[in-house]
Amino acid sequence: MKNKSLIIAKYEFLKIVKRWGFLFSTILLPLLMMLPLMFTMHYLPPLIPQIAANEKIGFMDYSDFLEPTQEFIGYMDIQSAKQALINDDISSFFVVQHDYFNTSKITIYSKDGSFFGSTPTKTIEGFLMKNLLRYGNVNDVIAEKIENPIVAEKITLDKQGNIKEEKSKAGGFLLPYALTFLLILSIMISSGYLMQGIIEEKESKTGELLLSSISADQLLKGKILGYGSVGLLQIGIWILLGLIMIFNSPLAGLFVGIEISSVFALAILYFILGYFLFATSIACTASISSSIREAQQTSIIFTMFATIPMVFAQFIMMNPNSMVAKIFTYFPYSSPFITMMRLLLVEISFYEIVLSIVILIISIGVMTKLSGKIFRMGMLMYGKRASLREVVGFLKEK
Amino acid sequence: MALKVENLTKSFDSKNVLNDISFSVKKDEVFSLLGPNGAGKTTMIRLILDILKPDSGEIKLFGENFSEEIKGRIGYLPEEGGLYKKTKVFDCIKYFASLKGMENIDSKIDYWLKKMNLQDYKAKNIQELSKGMQRQLQFIISIIHNPDILILDEPFYGLDPLNKKLIKDILLELKNKGTTIILSTHQMDEVERMCGRILMINKGKKVLYGNLNEIKSKYGFSIIVEYEGRLPKFEGIKKVNDYGNYAELILERKANTQNILKTLVGKVELKKFEVKTRSLNEIFIEVVKNEK
Q1: Same domain for A236 and A131
Q2: CA gap B205, A216 in Å, rounded
């Protein structure tokens, strides 16, 4: 026999994704919003910083084809180029490797300190193309190089000239905010679908029929899984569309050098844990309400918890290691968002992350126990909101 | 024994809803669960279905405690149960059947839709069906998985006489095939026609339990009289329900029906005189009133 929770999850998932409203809000609406945005972006000047009129860029040419100019200064060894960078004689320098004509590889060195913290890649690209074209007799190798002049490795140096891991500051601020916003949005959307699904179930009075075939716990699990998948799918599509738009626009430069794979892995873990906590909480409030409006009113306390990161975003970004930030890291209803936000700004100790996850898991366990009882009894109440006394009675049920 | 309930007690918020109820339902029988509104029937059904847990007492189905496997052997038609209005008829049956562990049942669904004269609505949304049709659909959902025990709460609610008969015929077929049927209804005439044994609860207590004929004989007889004129006073009559041209005389245990007939002759123009056991409806009203 198939797992009954999975049958419920599949049914609820398909019920939502087959609706026109879902297709519209998930695909058509973002596309419609993206079109004018993409049009505007096409005409925006690139946000990747370019060389200023009075700035100079250094280079070391192991492939021996670059001609120095007023803006581009040639160096014989890397130490002198580094020293020139530290002394602010040049804004950055790049090294053209021996195998450039085979690999297109260059290494760009820049100094930590500018807001964007990025490199004038386009300017360097232009300089390389100019030099390639000087050959006159453009063969296939040169033509290919002109098409794709560089594969850049980027290195940031600190004030002492030591290599520092590059992290785009604009991206470094935007990413935590965007990721936190997306986490909140995805959890709230999924929980919203769950709330709607439970209310619809109550309005159609199918609770008793379902509970004669499946336990309340299985039913709740199935619903949480089904609606969670809907939320994840919707957010996944939005992220995909967003990334396509960003990486085809000048905004791409803001995210240069940010390592996101481990962050995304943790974000998915926090999404799952955060969603389970909010979902079990919202399942309680929805099952004791008789209409979507009532459920929204009752759920407002949990919705408010979710807004904490947005309200305190500026403060936490400025003071990511403050006591307030740490408290919110451990508070289960804010920890998925705040931990992710802090994680992208500062080094958070391993134990802090583990502790926040442990508190979240314990909270989910407690809420699952409570919501199981409230959900079972609440689903059997039709057209009536449960009083506080009744809810206490539900909790006393075996 | 299909169902055995022993010393079942359940209370909500210190209010005793069921108090020390014991009864059993035999295999293949049609058993009726009766009681006025608020008596505790729905709570009893929810306890049998394991939707609620008892405070004390024991429920055994087919000699076993409740389990996932047993859940698949029960069919249930709730009184208030609804359906997903925007779902197609066929998909809805299939979904609920899958929760009972049924797979590859398309032909079976077609069979029951045809039997219930709903085949033309197979691909329609449930909201397009009339209330009676929706009740038929709920009935299909309750029996699609060939349950061993079928619990029906007001199954005839909203049905026209034709469909009522159709469902009664199907219930008889199921009974003959070995399905145990527990019927909870206020339609006493249907209970009298279909059920061999009954349990009546009132205010959470067992007030009547056993073979229907034995219960009825314990409550004595009544006489139905159709007449013109004015009814005289009788001896041996517990109560007279006089409706003008029609009266129901409830007899005392030792009443002599011949003497009553003699009293009537010449006093009124008698059109009908029928001695019968008291209807379940009368017994129900009497029991509930006495309990108050």
Answers
A1: no
A2: 28
Q: In angstroms, what separates the C-alpha of B132 from chain A's closest C-alpha?
A: 16
Q: Which two tokens stand for residue A183?
A: 């986490």
The letter for the amino acid at A152 is: A
> What is the count of structural domains for chain A?
2
Q: Which of A127, A157, A187 marks a domain boundary?
A: A157
The verdict on ipTM greater than 0.90 is: no
* Min Cα–Cα distance to chain A from B166, Å: 22
Name the one residue in this structure whose structure tokens are 């709903």. Answer: B118
At position B124, the amino acid (one-letter code) is K
**What is the distance, to the nearest Å, from the Cα of residue A244 to the centroid of all Cα atoms in its chain?**
14
A387 in contact with B, Cβ within 8 Å: no
Q: Return the domain boundaries, chain B.
A: 3-215, 220-291
Treating both helix axes as pointing N-terminal to C-terminal, what angle do A335-343 and A169-203 enclose, rounded to 10 degrees?
160
Q: How far apart are CA B28 and CA B148, in angstroms?
A: 9
Instruction: Tell whether A247 is within 8 A of chain B (Cβ).
Output: no
Contact with chain B for residue A211, Cβ under 8 A: yes
Q: Kind and range of the H or E element at A324?
A: helix A323-330
Dig out the tokens for A307 from the structure. Answer: 């807004």
| Per-residue pLDDT reduced to its tens digit, A282-301 | 888 888 888 888 888 888 88
A with B: how many residue pairs have Cβ under 8 Å apart? 68
- Is residue A192 a contact partner of residue A302, using CB atoms and an 8 Å limit? no
Burial A246-273 (b: 16+ CB within 10 A, else e): beebbbbbbbbbeeeeebeebbeebbbb
pTM (2 d.p.): 0.73
Could you tell me if A289 and A295 are in contact, meaning their C-beta atoms sit under 8 angstroms apart? Answer: yes
The answer to whether A308 and A338 are in contact (CB under 8 A) is: yes
Maximum Cα interatomic distance, chain A, rounded to a whole number of Å: 89
pLDDT of B89-124, one tens digit each? 999 999 999 999 898 899 999 999 999 999 999 999
Could you tell me the residue range of the domain that residue A121 belongs to? 54-157
- Number of Cβ atoms within 10 Å of the Cβ of A388: 8
* C-beta separation of A18 from A231 below 8 A: no
Residue A299's H or E segment, with its range, is none
What single-letter amino acid sits at A124?
A: I
Q: Which of B197, B192, B221 is nearest to B209 (CA)?
A: B197
Topology of the domain covering B220-291 = Alpha-Beta Plaits (3.30.70)
Q: With contacts defined as CB-CB under 8 Å, which chain A residues touch B49?
A: 211-212
Class of domain B3-215: alpha beta
Q: Do B43 and B9 meet the contact criterion of CB atoms below 8 Å apart? A: no
Note whether B237 and B255 are within 8 A (CB). yes
Q: Tell me if B144 sits within 8 A of B108, measured CB to CB.
A: yes
- The C-alpha atoms of residue A280 and residue A370 are separated, in whole angstroms, by 9
